[in-house]
Amino acid sequence: MIDVNWAGGDVTRAGGTRARRGAGTPAGSAEGVPAGAADAGTEMEIPAAARMGTAAEIVATVARSLRRERERAGISLTELARRAGVAKSTLSQLESGSGNPSLETLWALGVALRVPLARLVDPPRRGVQLIRAGEGAAMRTEGAEYSAVMLAACPPGARRDLYRVRAQPGAPYVARPHVAGTVEHLILCTGRALAGPEDEAVGLGPGDYLLYPGDVPHVFDALEPDTTAVIVMEDT
Amino acid sequence: MIDVNWAGGDVTRAGGTRARRGAGTPAGSAEGVPAGAADAGTEMEIPAAARMGTAAEIVATVARSLRRERERAGISLTELARRAGVAKSTLSQLESGSGNPSLETLWALGVALRVPLARLVDPPRRGVQLIRAGEGAAMRTEGAEYSAVMLAACPPGARRDLYRVRAQPGAPYVARPHVAGTVEHLILCTGRALAGPEDEAVGLGPGDYLLYPGDVPHVFDALEPDTTAVIVMEDT
DNA sequence: TATTCATGTTCACTATGATGAACGCACATG
DNA sequence: CATGTGCGTTCATCATAGTGAACATGAATA
Fold this sequence. Notes:
Two copies of one chain form a homodimer.
Chain A: H1 49-52, H2 55-73, H3 77-84, H4 88-95, H5 103-113, H6 117-121, E1 129-131, E2 138-140, E3 146-152, E4 160-167, E5 173-175, E6 182-190, E7 193-197, E8 202-204, E9 209-213, E10 218-222, E11 227-235
Antiparallel strand pairs in A: 2-3, 3-4, 4-11, 5-10, 6-9, 6-11, 7-8, 7-10
Helix pairs in contact in A: 3-4, 3-5
Chain B binds a DNA duplex (30 and 30 nucleotides) through residues 13, 15-18, 20-21, 76-78, 86-93, 95-96, 99-102, 105.
């Protein structure tokens, strides 16, 4: 999930660079996040700085996004600037990655381009991918009653993971609360199960759909052999 | 999907207001989008300004988000500012809605708060919900071979719809291309089907997972009776 | 009670984002 | 060929974002 991508600690904001005012300015890269400064409550230790990028990178990312979305819309730099109510020179700078736009400027550009800010700050990706039944790295409980395969991890900027689950009757799977704000969409495919928040679990049959908070203890208890389900875990 | 939320036309960027510099400055509200100024190429005419918010509103939204996320993290304004490498006075201003932060400043704050920018610019919501098999408004093809129920529509800021599908052999379901950038995650639950992009459809069995672009013509052809699947349609 | 420390807010100043104008280039038209 | 129009880039200037310091307040401690 999103949160596992984050490590604790401080970040120093990059000094902005005015390229047109000539060189000699300190490089705009952030100092990164101290790798050892994880919070006490963090479940995992990850190499932090490698995962988070820098302030300079977000500026470059937005630059690429602006150009990409503008070309996608098939309009000129001049026209986009006009629509957004922004100076041509400003947009030229932003697209070249030599600016550091304000929130209002970004907003105006997003509106003119008809894309949400999320897409500007965090570009997408794509391709065709097949994972067969039985394939994929499965997470299992000790008695192997419960097995979950993550099919699609949360890409940057999105807020969901997609799992295929297969479980046998026996020990119910009790999940600790996930990060605050997490919800889970569960679709039961085959078999029967008791699922949902620990204190309000619901009996489900094939085709049933349940939405519940994932930031409280929740269970998945298979009532029949080879009970299968799809879970979309979403960080709201 | 996301795209339908946007109307065409120009936006005038708000003149930033520095509240602490006293009154006499023109109000910081955007002039809004001229409702009548739709592009010639615009598919829809919608009451534009009512749907899009204003630059001043995004600033207020971010202000609320910063305070919410900081309180959620249980740290003081002073501590967050320190972690982000931002002046206390800057953060105080931003949280009070009287600022207009730069991208780098927002980035640094997001890193320090461990939340993506998307969550800062577009807050979430939640609840518990159950939809039984057979319930829910189903979209059907003419011969009723293919039936899809939307379980969870795309909330603002997220980019996915969640469907439960049930189909019979017979007429294959051919979907027109969705909005550019759409991908579909398909998990086959029961039965067998041929699915994916029209020119590279794949045979799938129970538990198989397929990811493919949804912005090209794609098919779902049930090969056995009562074939069921879950589809997560995502706008990347 | 006085002192210290932490909090968040306000202030004067500096650095920088955004501006309009000028520039250079390519293309279309008379 | 000369002119006009559109494109994107660069420049000097102005408005404002961000800064560090001062300020006001509340809580804890000696």
